[in-house]
Structures are given as C-alpha cells and as structure tokens.
Amino acid sequence: MRAYELSLKSENFSDLRISVSALYLLAAPSTPSEAVDDVIEHARSGERQAHAEIKDKIDKFKTAKAGSSDITARLIGQWLSEHLGQQFVIESRPGAGGNLATEAVAKATPDGYTLLLTGSSDAWNATLYGNLKFDYIRDIVPIASVSRGMDVLVVHPSVPAKSVPELIAYAKAHPGRLTIASSGVGSGPYMYWELFRSMTGVDMLHVPYRGGGPALTDLLGGQVQVSFSAVIASIQYIRDGKLRPLGVTGSTRLGVLPDIPTVGEFVRGYEATTWFGVGAPKNTPVAIVDKLHDEINEGLADAGLKMRFAELGDAVFASSLPDVAKLIVEDTEKWAKVIKSAGIKAN
Q1: Distances (CA, A) of 102 to 125, 189, 255
Q2: 167 in the same domain as 226
Q3: Same domain for 239 and 171?
Q4: How far apart are CA 97 and CA 130, in angstroms?
Q5: How far is Cα 77 from Cα 9, in angstroms, rounded to an integer?
Q6: Which end of the chain has fewer CB within 10 Å, C or N?
Q7: Residues 6 or more apart in contact with residue 42 via CB below 8 angstroms
Q8: Region for residue 288 given its phi and psi (left: phi exceeds 0; alpha: psi -120 to 50; beta: otherwise)
Q9: Rounded to whole angstroms, how far apart are CA atoms 196 and 20?
Q10: Domain end among 226, 249, 265
C-alpha cells in the first residue's frame, strides 16, 4: 500500500473558506518500489470551517515508481489542486497490503485534512486480514468513486481452449494440470481467479508472483498457462498473437477488445473489476464531503482527465454519494463470501 501526503498551500478552500496545511491521500501501488525522500518545509495559517485547528509542519514528499494507484492519486490531486487553488504534495506510505494507510486515515482527525485513495483492495482486505484495527465500512466515509478497470482472461497459445467454455471443459478434464499466475494472494488477478474457481468448480494450480510483470513474463514464456491480466499490460501481446484472450472480467465488453466476450456471458453472474475512490475518516463534516464530491465528479467529466484514465486502461467512474456507499458495502460483502468460501488468509 502506498500512502500519499498532500500539502495544501493556500488560504481558502473555495466557498468553504478552509485554509489547509496538510492532507493525506493514501493508496496501494501495483508493484513494490523504492521510495526517495525529500523534506519540504512550509508554514501556512488561516481560517477553516468547523473546529479544525491551524497547523504549521514539515511535510515529507516521497516519490516512487508509479503504478495505476500512484497515477490515480496524482491525477485527482492535480485536479483538486488546480480547482481549489491548493498544492497537493504526495507521500508514499507502504505496508500490510495497504492496511497501514487505511488505518492511518481511519484514526485521523475528521477535519477534511485527511483523505484516503480507497478501492477494491480495501473491500477484500476487510475479510482477508483477520486482525485489523479498524472497520472499513464503519470508519471510512465515502466521498467519490473515481475509476474502474477490468482484466482480461488470457491463455498461452499452447493451451487448446479458444473460449471460456472450452477452458472450463479442458480444466475439468485435466484437474490440476493447468497453472494460473497471479501477482500474489490478495491481488486483483488472484481475487478474479478465486471468484472464477468458486463459480465454475475448475481446478488449476495457482502460482503467485511478486507483481504482475514477472507473472506476465512467465505466461509469455509458457511457464504458466493462464492468467487474469491487466488489459493495458497484455493488449499488445494479444494483438501480436502471443496471448489468446478468452474473456474480459467486466459486465460489458471492452472498447479496445470489442470482439472479446465478457466472462459473464458464459459464467452467469461473473463480474470482477478493480475500482478506485476517495474516502475520509468517519464524522468528516458533510459540507467538506459534499464539496470534494462535487469537485471530483466535475473532474471526471473532463475530457482530458478521461483520456488520462483511458491510458491506464481504466474508465472514469462517477457516482452519487449513496451509490458510492452502496458500492463499498456490496463489494465488501461480495468478496467476503469468496474469501470465506475458499478459506483464504493473507500471509
């Protein structure tokens, strides 16, 4: 998990008239990376709404190799900075599959200074980890959904299956023979596989890797045969015939792969996507939540921001506050059933 600290250096928060000195935006990276620390001194004071205090502090600015969550945090931070007149400085905070970041926000003062780049991993971590010091649904208030992406179920060309039904039939005829790669227990591809396994009853040997890159390399080399792969990482190999796509994991077909069906067209009810959103500590003032919600949704309607998310292989995902809250509850419950049924626990 990567956390991002965003230092806000202006005297007002639009019509809320909030002077903000620091805001933490915490997120999970796609892959581990080394961080470089810069120390940035700043001192700002001013008025802010409600009972928040004025702070002068030194902020740490950590940068690292960017994964999709890193870039998502920076895109939203940049948009808010430009439209609220405040500079956002981002800090990485890794640890415990993202739970250290979520815990930090859950325990933060609910004054609008501290936000969380939340997402699917928080929904399944709620069950995957048994000793969390916070309750995700209770302690994080949703502000906005941001983006949503899907994976593509691909096989090495040596696998005879040319469709999802053929893969299921082949796997059932040869239980345990096929190997399926993921970027580790608790990753998106792993969760997509567990949902697929629970709904189809197929038996494949799961091979976890330390990240999607090594998994994709071995898939291309034929060391493993099956994977749920990020579209942006695999699409060129699909076009070159080095990987065979069988289905996308979303509820609708994907524009860049229009001829590839959804997995759900053959496995009724199957749908698995990774989403990102923004949350805050519970009891954050409603006026602040509403203001940030409106500003983020305005950004998601911007053509330029839509294009940036498309470059990540994601689509913008704007929702109302009730719909974001509903998504979090339903996704947490959905993955809890999968995790409990499979008896999965994080290492």
Answers
A1: 10, 21, 33
A2: yes
A3: yes
A4: 13
A5: 13
A6: C
A7: 7, 9, 21, 56, 57, 58, 59
A8: alpha
A9: 45
A10: 265
